[in-house]
Design goal:
Layout lengths: L5 E5 L23 H13 L4 E4 L7 H6 L7 H11 L4 E7 L5 H15 L3 E6 L4 H5 L9 H20 L6 E4 L4 E3 L9 E2 L4 E2 L14 E4 L4 H10 L2 E4 L4 H17 L8 E10 L3 H13 L3 H11 L29 H14 L3 H11 L3 E5 L1 H13 L5 E4 L6 H16 L12 H4 L23
Parallel strand pairs: 1-2, 1-13, 2-3, 3-4, 4-9, 9-10, 10-11, 11-12, 11-13
Antiparallel strand pairs: 5-6, 7-8
Helix pairs in contact: 1-3, 3-4, 4-6, 7-8, 10-12, 13-14
Length: about 450
């Protein structure tokens, strides 16, 4: 089969730039209006995107209240509404392993897989913001290694729950009086360091068996987790060589764990301002940067470095790595801290310039250009082994996504890089992933299942 790009639309507020909410090209709809998200999802579906994706935020930082649009809908609830209003597009949402329980989350995703006809994915995150921990009755988040240890067990339990129903368990035999086969539903009795869950799940297996597993951590610990479990990886890189190295390393780690590296999809973020000319596209970034409130960027930068105070630094003095804590000591967003300090070492930007770069897409690759130039970059990264596709992050929504679908997608199709129409009905199918295995019932010997009773 010809290798083709996978495209995901990352829907974030009124656009990925921090000041997008103020721009005249941004939607005027409230972020609590489901019609706004449904229109974007349908637009992505019309362009045959693999999926739309929603991050999640468990805290409201003080500076964001006045200067940054916040208050969107809880993503799993929103996926239910989008599933009812779309037919083919995949639907991915973030949910944290830090502040929920495996049974609740497995039940929600199994239900969404049924509601959507097999189109959901779970972006697995561990929560690192200290302010978020206080919203859940904890003084501070776990340190990075401990968070991922908890996530490992959480995912193991959730997977057991999804696998606790064989695909043929439900008979719905009215005449014979049997709804399901007891021997095809398993009580597994998990008892671990963090969770005690008897099972089985009280929702039968969805069309995909399990949701597509998505991950976005790029620290050494995050990469090990992704290599062991993820099927789709969202990642942030400011330069192509770093993206090539990341994808090669991740595929190597996956192969070393006995996984098929070709069944792993890596999608770097791409924030492209698109215009009739490069200068016109650059004007959009300039307009957005003029609207930025530095206090928002400073607070977010501080959060990424575990609460480090940057407010004493002059906005227009060139930065050095000495102005930052060592990334290896950061217990919060370590991979993004590494990206930021590498940028500072390489380019020596001022604090103001750094805040503008982060305001654009939070450490993902950004550019300004014509549709041809954007397509050229995408093709180059794809053919160079930097990406299996892209997590598209329009700076302003919906205008810049419309520019992408109407001007860039046709170029990608003419070059044979992107599908003309859907060839599958599930998210797993769009991504070309194999069926999800079932640890209890795939090739299990007769009588191996323990009745659910």
């Amino acid at each position: 089969m010809t290798r083709r790009l996978h495209l995901n639309l990352f829907i974030h507020g009124r656009g990925h730039h921090e000041a997008a909410w103020r721009h005249p090209a941004a939607t005027a709809r409230a972020l609590t209006d489901p019609a706004y998200y449904l229109e974007l999802a349908r637009q992505a579906e019309a362009a045959c995107f693999d999926a739309v994706f929603f991050a999640d935020h468990l805290v409201l930082l003080p500076s964001e209240i006045a200067h940054s649009v916040q208050g969107g809908l809880e993503p799993l609830t929103l996926l239910g509404a989008l599933a009812a209003g779309t037919r083919r597009i995949g639907l991915i949402a973030t949910a944290s392993t830090s502040y929920t329980e495996p049974f609740n989350l497995a039940r929600q995703f199994a239900s969404l897989d049924h509601i959507s006809g097999g189109r959901v994915g779970w972006n697995i995150v561990t929560s690192w913001l200290a302010a978020a921990s206080r919203n859940f009755g904890r003084e501070a988040p776990l340190e990075l290694e401990a968070r991922y240890a908890q996530a490992e067990e959480f995912l193991a339990v959730a997977t057991k729950l999804w696998d606790s129903w064989a695909r043929d368990a439900v008979l719905d035999d009215r005449a014979g009086g049997r709804f399901a086969q007891p021997g095809r539903v398993r009580r597994f009795g998990h008892a671990g360091a963090h969770y005690r869950v008897e099972g089985p799940l009280n929702v039968p297996a969805g069309p995909q068996g399990r949701p597509v597993l998505v991950q976005a951590g790029s620290s050494a610990t995050g990469k090990r987790f992704a290599a062991g479990h993820a099927e789709l990886v969202f990642t942030a890189h400011l330069e192509k060589p770093a993206a090539v190295a990341f994808r090669q390393e991740l595929r190597g780690l996956a192969a070393g764990l006995g996984r098929d590296a070709d069944a792993l999809r890596v999608l770097p973020g791409l924030g492209a301002a698109i215009g009739g000319t490069e200068a016109e596209a650059q004007r959009l970034w300039d307009e957005l940067n003029e609207m930025v409130a530095p206090s928002v960027g400073l607070e977010r930068l501080s959060a990424r470095f575990g609460g480090h105070d940057f407010s004493h630094l002059p906005l227009d003095r060139p930065l050095s790595v000495a102005d930052f804590p060592p990334p290896g000591a950061v217990q919060a967003a370590r991979s993004r801290a590494e990206v930021i300090t590498e940028l500072v070492a390489r380019e020596r930007p001022s604090l103001r310039a750094l805040l503008h770069r982060l305001a654009a897409a939070r450490g993902h690759y950004t550019m300004a250009g014509t549709p041809e130039q954007v397509a050229d970059v995408m093709e180059d990264w794809f053919r160079s082994g930097a990406a299996d596709g892209f997590n598209i992050m329009p700076p302003v929504l919906p205008a810049q996504f419309t520019a992408f679908t109407e001007a860039v997608v046709p170029i990608l199709r003419r070059r044979g890089l992107f599908r003309e129409e859907y060839e599958a009905a599930t998210l797993r199918g769009h991504l070309g992933l194999p069926p999800a295995p079932n640890q209890f019932f795939d090739a299990a010997p007769a009588g191996a299942a323990v009745p659910a009773g």
